[in-house]
Amino acid sequence: MKLLLVEDNAELAHWIVNLLRAENFTVDCVVDGEAADSVLLTQSYDLVLLDMRLPRLSGKDVLSRLRRRRNNVPVLMLTAHGSIDDKVACFGAGADDYVVKPFDSRELVARIKALIRRQTGEKSGWLTCGDLQYVCDTREFRHKDAPLTLRRREHSILEALMLRQGRAVPKHALLERICSLSDEPSVDAIDIYIHRLRKHLAESSVQITTLRGLGYILRAKEPVPA
């Protein structure tokens, strides 16, 4: 999952970025409204964390522009005041939720996961493909009731494949999932991560198949004829 954080307080932004990366999110961070508006024109995100009061362009104006472009990415507003006026302004501009500063890390992560779960439409709490499970609430992979330990980028790629299991996911879409604005993207890197994931899944009943010219697909292995 890839998130955009728009926050001009450098210390708070650093803390949030580290918190979310520890939760296996890919995170981009910009410090003003104009930069956020520019990035949102070219990049795709699973969720935006948007400060209400920003330099150059307010969070409310960034959100209004986003919604006028019919971009329905979930937006979690960060506001310093929990007043009724602020809440009304957030929702009136098209926000999906908000948190009031200072907030607890657990609350922030829980609200982010709830918004993403709502966006994907997954209500059962988990997904399965063969004997591989994906727990939506914790974003944890499990195989035979044991956690599947993955590095952050491996996790992001497998997550993208799991959420679209049975359908081909292009290389460029996977690359976008794992690369932040500060990274040097390399399509060849996807092959390396897919190779590692295949090793992790070697004992499972699922496989990642390469579809030439289309990308990769995650699906259950065909049963071996008796």
Structural overview:
- The chain is of the alpha/beta class and 226 residues long.
- It has 2 domains: 2-120, Rossmann fold (3-Layer(aba) Sandwich); 126-220, Winged helix-like DNA-binding domain superfamily/Winged helix DNA-binding domain (Arc Repressor Mutant, subunit A), CATH 1.10.10.10.
- It is 41% helix and 22% strand.
- The chain has 8 helices and 11 strands.
- Strands 2-1-3-4-5 form a 5-stranded parallel sheet, sandwiched between helices.
- A hairpin with a 3-residue loop joins β10 (206-211) and β11.
- The N and C termini lie far apart (40 Å).
- The mean pLDDT is 89.
- InterPro entries: CheY-like_superfamily, OmpR/PhoB-type_DNA-bd, Sig_transdc_resp-reg_receiver, WalR-like, WH-like_DNA-bd_sf.
- Residues 2-116 form the Response regulatory domain.
- Pfam families: Response_reg (PF00072), Trans_reg_C (PF00486).
Feature tags:
2 domains; alpha/beta; 11 strands; 5-stranded parallel β-sheet; 4-stranded antiparallel β-sheet; phosphoprotein; transcription regulation; Rossmann fold; Arc Repressor Mutant, subunit A; 8 helices; CheY-like_superfamily; 226 residues
